[in-house]
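4.2 Preliminary Data

To establish feasibility before requesting continued support, the project team ran the inverse folding procedure on a target of 33 residues. The structure was first converted into the token representation described in Section 3, and no sequence information of any kind was made available to the design step. The complete token record follows.
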């Protein structure tokens, strides 16, 4: 696997987990109100 492919994979995972964490934080803040 080339370095560019690994960087793209890490970048994609970061977006996926970042979006999931943002959605969870949004749901928790909405639930606390």
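Position-by-position output of the design step:
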């Amino acid at each position: 696997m080339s370095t560019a492919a690994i960087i793209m994979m890490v970048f994609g995972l970061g977006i996926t987990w970042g979006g999931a964490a943002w959605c969870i934080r949004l749901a928790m803040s909405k639930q606390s109100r």
